[in-house]
Amino acid sequence: MEGYWYYIGAIAIMVWSFIVQISLKAKAAKGSEIASNKTANEVVEEMLSRHGIYGITIDHKPGELSDCYSPKEGKIYLSDTTYNKRTLTAVAVAAHECGHAVQDHENMGIYRLRQFLAPAAGVCSNLSWYIVLAGILFAYASERGGELGFTICNIGIILYMVTFLFFLVMLPVERNASRRAYKDMKDSNWVAEEDRSYAYKILRAAGDTYAISLASSALTLFRLILMRNSTRRN
Interior CA angle at 203 toward 217 and 35, to 5°? Predict the structure, then answer.
């Protein structure tokens, strides 16, 4: 019965992801047709200056919506659809990335935790599957290997929890960056007043993708637990 819940959850997340991606693309496309009062690059410079942040440079990064803030390099990368563009979408995306720079500058605790977990998250995600599978194989290879296989699986699950924790803290970090971006947007003349609410919708839709990542991670954790429990039934 537990297995059915996994498949129901997987289908629900797949449908949810499809809806969110379609919504985000539609909102970003519409926002790209709405002119802003300043370019994305000007918004970055103004927002950084407003928060007393200096020494961060702007650089171009090929691709669409591949924008990011790199604390190690001290750069904010803006994609083809953002760099020097004077559109509502470009301004919203650029301000969001500046929000991460402000989090870094203010030494925000949960942002620091995300940065600490980031290098290990990918490694633990992959390694955990191998360990859980090894535990299952060990349990089925020997009549008395069930308990040891169960323990090995637990090690893999603990490792994956590092990845789950990463996604758990990522969502509020991303939401917070969007709130910072929107607050500064309201206090400035980057976009027309009547367009600000739509900029918030773009930021909200982008944040929903991280909610999906968290839900997917939780489902994967549930799947690993089901796989571990199968060693007890052996």
Answer: 150
- Whole-prediction pTM value? 0.90
Number of domains in the chain: 1
Q: How far apart are CA 175 and CA 173, in angstroms?
A: 6
Q: How many CB atoms lie within 10 A of CB 138?
A: 18
Q: Is the dihedral of CA 42, 83, 67, 34 positive or negative?
A: positive
**123 contacts: CB under 8 Å, gap ≥ 6:** none
The secondary structure element, H or E, covering residue 60 is strand 57-60
Q: What are the per-10-residue average pLDDT scores of the chain (234 residues)?
A: 82 96 94 95 96 95 90 95 95 96 96 95 94 89 74 95 97 96 92 93 94 96 91 64
Tokens of 157: 């699950």
Residues pairing with 60 in the sheet:
78
CA 105, 66, 26 angle in degrees (round to 5)? Answer: 115
Give the residue numbers spanning the domain of 198: 2-233
Backbone angles phi, psi at 80, to 5 degrees: -60, -35
* Alpha carbon distance 85, 45 (integer Å): 14
Give yes or no for a contact between 39 and 90, defined as CB atoms under 8 angstroms apart: yes
Q: 12, 64 in Cβ contact below 8 A?
A: no
Distance CA 178, CA 207 (A): 8
pLDDT in tens, 69-118: 999 999 999 999 999 999 999 999 999 999 999 999 999 999 999 999 99
Nearest to 36 by CA among 102, 85, 86, 70: 86
